[in-house]
Amino acid sequence: MPIQLLDPQVISRIAAGEVIERPASVVKELVENSLDAGATQISVEIAGGGLELIRISDNGCGIAASDLEMAFQRHATSKITRFEDMFSLHSLGFRGEALPSIAAVAEVEVTSCQEGNPSGGRLHMRDGKTFKKGALGRSSGTTISAVRLFQSVPARLKFLKSRPTEAAHIAAVISQYALDYPEVKFSLVMDGKASLTTPGNGKLSDAIIQVYGLEVARNMLDIGEQEWNTDAAIKVGGMVSGPVLSRSTSNYISLFVNRRWINSRRLSWAIEEAYHGLLMTGKHPIAIINIEVAPADIDVNIHPTKSEVKFKDESAVYGAVQRAVRQTLVSMTPVSSIAEVAVAPYEATKQPPLFSPHHAGGAGTTSYSKPESSQSEPQRLATPKTTLPALRLLGQIRNSYIVAEGPDGLYLIDQHAAHERILFEKLGAEKILGKLEVQALLSPLSFEVSPAHAGVLAEHLDDLAEMGFLLEAFGANTYLARTVPALLAEKDWKAMLSELLESVGREQSQFMERLMALTACHSAVRFGQTLGEDEMRELLRQLEQVELPNSCPHGRPTLICLTHEQLGKEFKRV
Ligand code: ADP
Ligand code: MG
Q1: Can you tell me which atom of ligand 1 is nearest the CA of 97?
Q2: 456 near 500, Cβ under 8 Å?
Q3: From the CB of 93, is ligand 1 less than 6 Å away?
Q4: Are 87 and 296 in contact (CB under 8 A)?
Q5: Is 408:370 a contact under the CB 8 Å cutoff?
Q6: Hey, which of 32, 36, 143, 301 would you mutate to test ligand 1's pocket, going by the most ligand atoms within 8 Å of its Cβ?
Q7: Which ligand 1 atom is at minimum distance from the Cα of 95?
Q8: 79 lines ligand 1 (CB under 6 A)
Q9: Is the CATH number 2.60.40.10 carried by domain 219-332?
Q10: N or C: which terminal CB in the chain sees fewer CB atoms within 10 Å?
Q11: Is the CB of 94 under 6 A from ligand 1?
């Protein structure tokens, strides 16, 4: 075949393929245009998964009637004039490609009017060309509808999923922008039914209520009000789920950079990592993270749909996000209350050992003042709590739970889970300082692994050494242990290593965390182990010191609190 230039229509359809992959891409581009136009109300209506109809109306600045056709020219934009403008960009669009791309694969009608202009214009595009145009009176703003999407590109139609799936993608796009722009009132109507409406009052938590529901909104923690967040070159805001809340996929992590919705596996991972030791394996947080950096510090022109950005200093952003999330969790993670963990307070209080006379210190020596927060809404989550209050030991029940008194009520502590948490943090701190205590074995002990596990072990010898397990290969499936972590010297560390190798999946990055959690688990006091008073008191003191006292490294609660209010209610005193 001779070399020849492609027909302009073919060129524009090929180019459109980059930007418009599915109906949700049309919605995304049009919503972004409405946001760039400064709209405070954006209404979206779709039918048949977006294939029959997509209509978006906004009350933004509008397009001059004389500019309407120009807006559909490839590379026509009002947002930048010079290449350098991209590095001081405050708009979502800049390439001038969305409208022509949409018109290349759908039939498009636009009506628009600029504020203060008595008459607006209308334009009807077919096959990427002007079909009809005219004048029209309407309120200021723009309405764009696209019908017969992809009818002219049957190959593309074949790649689409079912209409409900495409509709779900559209709903996801609107949900993201609703979370990204809480000051904008969004409404989404799908096949005639209202599917999402946000109040547009600027409150992220109200947008969350509409997108994820009240229960989720209630358990979200605000990053924005934290003081570490002020005057940094990288600002991080938004909301993240408290540890009581999780999802089984990471799809509930939303990332926005300078109000642009982006995907970043690395930043998602930064958030997941901030939850280490707080969520059970396989669970993921819900997060809405707003990152603000100087426009010159990001390159937004690296992805056809602008859904990825490149940071000048990605590690700094990673660190800032992780720190902000972690600090929020650490300072705001509340103690589980009895009601939340569904233990009847009555049952808890009737256990006889609770009132056995082994309290230490005598009741008179400690006086507690009632914290203000307990006056109102005692069980409200998100009560800032950096560490535990001082706890006074009362006793142990079933050789498993420690009972203690705190300023706000009665505490029941799962002795194993609490000790696991203490040891987990101790190991973490010692590891960072390189001060991990190691026990050298007088004569090396051999440790056999299955052929399947031998590979995993071989891959992680360095991690294991870092934690105190100095292992040397000794034949194909046998290792010699020269040192073990001091904590495990007296324990069955071989069983622990087998459990570790058994549990390690594909997620390499979790190996260290699992190793630490299992080391903590196998060294901790057991459930059902009788503890002396001094041991229990020591455990309480240590628990008061840890960073995250309220859950074990697997995410289970370490303690529950029965507040004075709850006691009063149970005994009908209030
Ligand atoms: P870009 O957003 O990259 O500039 P588009 O093809 O998406 O390119 O839009 C082309 C131009 O049309 C925009 O620069 C803007 O001036 C105008 N425009 C598009 N949609 C709207 C809207 N909803 N309100 C006001 N102007 C709009
Ligand atoms: Mg655009």
Answers
A1: 6
A2: no
A3: yes
A4: yes
A5: yes
A6: 36
A7: 3
A8: yes
A9: no
A10: N
A11: yes
Instruction: Pick one of 3.30.565.10, 3.50.50.60, 3.40.50.2300, 3.20.110.10 as the CATH number of 8-209.
Output: 3.30.565.10
Specify the amino acid at residue 383: T
Amino acid letter, 419: H
Task: State which ligand 1 atom lies nearest to the alpha carbon of 142.
Answer: 23
Topology of domain 360-563, per CATH?
Ribosomal Protein S8; Chain: A, domain 1 (3.30.1370)
Per-residue pLDDT of the chain (574 residues; tens, 9 = 90+): 899 999 988 888 888 888 899 999 999 999 999 999 999 999 999 999 999 999 999 999 999 999 999 999 999 999 999 988 888 899 999 999 999 999 999 999 999 999 988 889 999 999 999 999 999 989 999 999 999 999 988 888 888 988 999 999 999 999 999 999 999 999 999 999 999 999 999 999 999 999 999 889 988 999 976 555 555 689 999 999 998 889 988 999 999 999 999 999 999 999 998 988 888 878 899 999 999 999 999 999 888 888 999 999 888 899 899 889 988 888 776 566 555 443 333 333 422 222 222 222 222 222 223 333 333 333 333 333 446 788 899 999 999 999 999 888 899 999 999 999 999 999 988 888 888 889 999 889 999 888 888 888 888 999 899 999 999 998 888 999 999 999 998 899 998 998 888 877 555 557 888 899 899 999 999 999 999 999 999 999 999 888 888 888 877 889 998 989 889 988 988 8
Top mutation candidate among 61, 77, 125, 143 for ligand 1, by most atoms within 8 Å of CB:
77
Rounded to two decimals, what is the model's pTM?
0.69
Ligand 1 pocket, 242 CB below 6 A?
no
For residue 93, report the distance from its CA to the centre of ligand 2, in Å: 4
- Output the residue whose Cα is nearest ligand 1's atom 19: 33
Distance 136 CA to ligand 2 centre (A): 23
Among 251, 319, 285, CA closest to 555: 285
46 and 53 Cβ atoms separated by less than 8 Å: yes
Which residue's CA is the closest to the ligand 1 atom numbered 14?
A: 77
Structure tokens at 479: 């290792």
CA angle 405, 411, 417 (to 5 degrees): 130
CA of 308 to the centre of ligand 1 (A): 20
Q: Does 322 contact ligand 1 (Cβ within 6 A)?
A: no
Shortest-distance Cα residue to atom 25 of ligand 1: 62
DSSP string, 408-469: TEEEEEEHHHHHHHHHHHHHHHHHHHT---EEEEEEEEEEE--HHHHHHHHHTHHHHHHTT-
Considering only CA atoms, which residue is closest to atom 2 of ligand 1?
Answer: 93
- Three-state SS at 493: helix
Tell me which residue has its CA closest to atom 15 in ligand 1.
Answer: 78
Q: Are 262 and 299 in contact (CB under 8 A)?
A: no
Domain boundaries, the chain: 8-209, 219-332, 360-563
Q: How far away, in angstroms, is 330 Cα from ligand 1 center?
A: 43
